[in-house]
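Example is below:
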Amino acid sequence: MQTLQQLDYWAIAIYMLLMAGIGLFLGKFVKNIGDYFKGGNAIPWVSGAISNFMTKFSTFIFVAYAGIAYQHGFVALTLIWSTVLPALLGVAIFAKRWRRAGIMTPMEFLETRFNSSVRQTFSWMGVLFKILDNMVRLYALGLFVKAATGLSLESSILACGIIVALYTVVGGLWAVVVTDVVQFIILIVATLILVPLTIQAAGGLPSMMAAIPDHFTWFNGPKGMPLYLMVYYLMILVKYSGNWTFIQRFYSVRDERASQKQGLLTAVFFFLFPIIFLFPSIAAKALIPNLENPEMAYVSVCLKLLPEGIMGLMVAAMFAATMSVLSGEYNVTAGVLTRDIYQRLFNPKAADKEMLWVGRFMTLVLGALVTIGALYVGGFGGAFEANKLFTGLFAIPMTLPLVLGIVLKRPQPWGAFATLVVGMGLGLILNTMPQVSWEWATLIEIVSCVLVFLLSGALLSPSALYQQRVEAFFRRLRTPLTEAEKPAENPVFMQIMNRLYAVALVVTGALFIVMSLPSIEETSGRVALGAGCLCLVLSALMWYRTRKTILVSEPVEHHKTQQTIEN
């Protein structure tokens, strides 16, 4: 298999400089811990939806799900569409509640809803799970980079881990969201270049369907069985609904309506874009039928079809996918370490400036731990299997009290503890019993955890103080936010953000145009050139829009100033 060429490395280097520049620039606007961990509740809902999508969408898709698509076809889409359900449930149930909760980290809610012991236990266990979960993502990215560059897996993981951690440390949630939007554009454009190339190389869609007919059915293979799909959808519903970054996006926007619109747009993204992303891996079965490692399907077809320079952009897009996830996870997990553990246990009177620096230090520590741990993920049987194992052991028992606790007010603190103990105990036992399938093990664990949690609500708590606190909290969740509780919009700052997007689009467009020139005689080069020109047009429109906004707002500001002088 061929590897990256010199032009490809230039493309990746320019992309990395762009991400680092955005992180450093946005670091100037981070003045306090609220800015760092929840963007001052001022994240635009469209940007939040893109970030929400990107923080669930990593190279894991292009490795684990790509392997399923290569082996079994469209069933990979059937599986990945499980992510649509939690986004829609968020719109219907959770979005308003999380925005009204008035929290800076998801774990803060647990103290108000249950007690401080629940908050501490779930904070420590949650950080451990986040480290394990992100180890899998970084491992998947390392596999991709190893296949593309020829570097060792260890070197690939170390390089990727260091890059992600450093640019996330400076800019906080704003850096996460803005880079997510830029990375989203790069990822979409790079993937759209690959799709027509794979169809052309396979001799057209009819030829592909004739060559691999089973791959064009929705329930092919063992992962297409009804029981497997039912349990997988249920697992993803639990995992995503209680995912810290998923929750963080809901409470980082201005109000409840913005939170719901963000969730709806996220669902649309989850439904549409996986079709584009997974199609090349399905086509790879027809193009490279005897691939030794199915999880290398996507990178193999990229190396086969993409010319020098364009391949570098595709690797940059892979970086984009996983950097988005890891940066978001690092930010929200560092928030728990800073707010729920450091401030709550070690320094309750910590000044805001100190908290900001502690948050950055925690982000750096998390990056180091995840990078080191990713070196050992291969021992768990690969990315997809490791993800299933960690989810069964930790995600289910940890997220159910979080998800059900914000909806149901009767379950008590001991129910949260019992859910965690019973869930993890069952997970450990069932995963060591080869005679019990993953489907039944996961289903038994979910049902048992739900029953234990609900059982704790069968009788009211004898503590009147606890009942009053919980009742007051749920009353707040039912009460719409007032205008005074919503952050004041800063049009100047938003103009700066839009201009930053415009500049990033210029760099992206120029990158695609320059990298297309050596292969301009080929289809890939011409498609890349068109994509680059489209980025430049979008940049110009965005810049013009911000200029128009400034011209419109200036007379208004002038009128207000005149009124003030006259008064």
